[in-house]
């Protein structure tokens, strides 16, 4: 079910090829054995297509096209198969680059530690060298069934530094063929009667040195029904059972890939850390999405800050795969408080402010998550809690909501020095009212 | 400012010849290429004589006959060539014939566009020309109508003769492999099917149907089925001479005039993201179309753009396949049963060969060709006869270019359960290189291999 990349310790470029593969076959009977035979045969056809000279990989946002099975033939011909893979990056038009190709000082700070990704599209060449024979029309008349669908191929290979295009693409082709084999297994396993589940490849980032791993899941089957497979994977990769590495919510998100829901993820990552004498940085672990005023067409300017902070925390639990529940809207949060008896029914739909106690109640009610409340009578006292905050980020790693008076914020991390007691806080501000623009958001910080 | 028509000298000679014959008024078609700035008329052909003279004969041309002629001629025009308009040689006053000509030109356009699987683009020229020639005075009257506008009025246009209009046109071509598998509808006589056919086109509904063993293969069904393939081609990535050119790039960047250019194209396709039918569905069988079509398009020599070349080439690929499918169905209808070119095996599967494409140059030294389709049981003489009847061309066998495609051959003794698409294709390509004897051996080997794999009860 899994392809693992054994060279994950190097920081080479990631090659990612995606594309739909058409899967069509005529089933003369719905007898299970016949269906499995026909499905296997169709997969053989797909595999031979992918291994044929007609298989083409086009580099997105670039004029580069590669024929991996024709001695790795490349157009434009300025690029040779023996050139290093990273050469392809020079041919990709990226929005981040200045016309002059230089990076401004500001943009330098945005350079994340993630490797760069070359996105490729899987296509087939429809033209061949002639002369070829004219078409034949073949007709079979029989009451039967027809199977037609597309499989979403999504294959990833991490190159080593200075690996040639030829070697990297030959590996990519092998990975593609292997993915088709995995898809075949999943399809055959999950075909029942006349329903067919589409095999869906997903990528998961495991702790080094295992790196990026691809798993093929049957689409539409919820995580709860795939527990057996996930247990097997945990065993195979010797992973502890208390972190949901293989839940769908934890799929690896590739850099520069926009999220379908439009929220920014982990905007704090592009910032530089403050330096303190003997200080260390303790950050939230995993991903969260940034929730703030005015999102989701809800005008909560002035009263919704704690609700937004709660949403950010809920997003963390969802994205780490602890819960499948979507982030609650303001009304849902208010309803939860009514349900636990904390507020009257008229609370729902109001613009009333909530505090830490309410946030704790909602987290418990909606997510089944328990939280600890730490009281500080004055803001200045927070500095003395440095050790506790650092510990929290080390062990739990969740974002912290801080509320007091009429303001609420989210603490994402601390930079704390054990020796001097100096402390700095990384704050996510829910009072922001602008758009989901990483540049604007981090500049304000 | 009207349109300008640049016309080959030979067309002038042809029209003069029509003036000299005395059998009555002559109508015909004008063939060439449109571009945003001007139109190029490459050849003209008179409407063929009808065997029975109809009562309504007299001075006005038979509208149905002329449009049917236009439909057949349209099939014989590769990419870049199209029917630009009609001409009439008659001593009736020009003003009186203008209405008839207008009707003709609209009818021709409606018929031809109803058979297309590709949609016309915004930037396609929609002006069509009508030319009136008075045989006694040799005066010509040239007007255009906008066929996209039902209320359009005649606009004046310039008609200029020139020599060598298309002698240095560019040619873009490629060989497109076809591999389509479609489900047959479960209940072919159901009313929904008829309704679907109606949506395709009124004409297609009246189009030939072929009945075999209770099943029905309608033309409109085939058209609908091929629509997915046509759409894939329309959105395909096009490489010209191995490179992907910017849409506005010129095809022959800075070339000298009078130097003929040939380009080879490649098309990269990807399956349609939007799916019409997902999963397992009931069907009444399946139809597969498998093989290759040679596709070509011509471009005028006045700074043609890569985008235009791509558009015309893709349209030609789609047209040539659908034309052949239509011709097959028409042929089966007229031969009233299974054609000689078919074979039926014990698995209820029938195979039919689509005709292959043959080219004939319009003028001896030029690159521009018209084409015809030859069924496997026809000789070249039939092709020559059709070229004469439809396009009034006097061609000899040696002028014909028959090497672009090889005729399809039905594979005997192929015992696979379902149409094994990939084996058929592999065998066909082998046939080209090693000859028939070798191909038979390969066919037997493939059969043996597939029998081992199937492990049938």
UniProtKB/TrEMBL annotation, chain A:
Q: Which InterPro entries match?
A: UFSP1/2_DUB_cat (IPR012462), UFSP2-like_2nd (IPR049387)
**Among its keywords, does the record have Hydrolase?**
yes
Q: Which GO terms describe its molecular function?
A: deUFMylase activity
Task: Provide GO CC annotations from the record.
Answer: endoplasmic reticulum; nucleus
Kindly state a single biological-process term from the GO annotations of this entry.
proteolysis
Domain (UFSP1/2/DUB catalytic) ranges: 280-444
Which controlled-vocabulary keywords does the entry list? Answer: Hydrolase, Protease, Thiol protease, Ubl conjugation pathway
Q: Which family does it belong to?
A: Belongs to the peptidase C78 family.
Q: What is this protein called?
A: Ufm1-specific protease 2
Automatic annotation (TrEMBL), chain B:
Q: What is its main location?
A: membrane
* Region Disordered: start-end pairs: 44-64
Q: Which UniProt keywords apply?
A: Membrane, Transmembrane, Transmembrane helix
Task: Name the Gene Ontology biological process terms.
Answer: intracellular protein localization
Query: Which InterPro entries does the UniProt record give?
Result: ODR-4-like
Transmembrane parts of this sequence:
433-454
What cellular-component terms does GO give this entry? endomembrane system; membrane
Kindly list the places in or outside the cell where this protein is found, as annotated in its UniProt entry: Membrane
Task: Provide the function of this protein.
Answer: May play a role in the trafficking of a subset of G-protein coupled receptors.
Its family?
Belongs to the ODR-4 family.
Q: What is this protein called?
A: Protein odr-4 homolog
| Species of origin | Gasterosteus aculeatus aculeatus
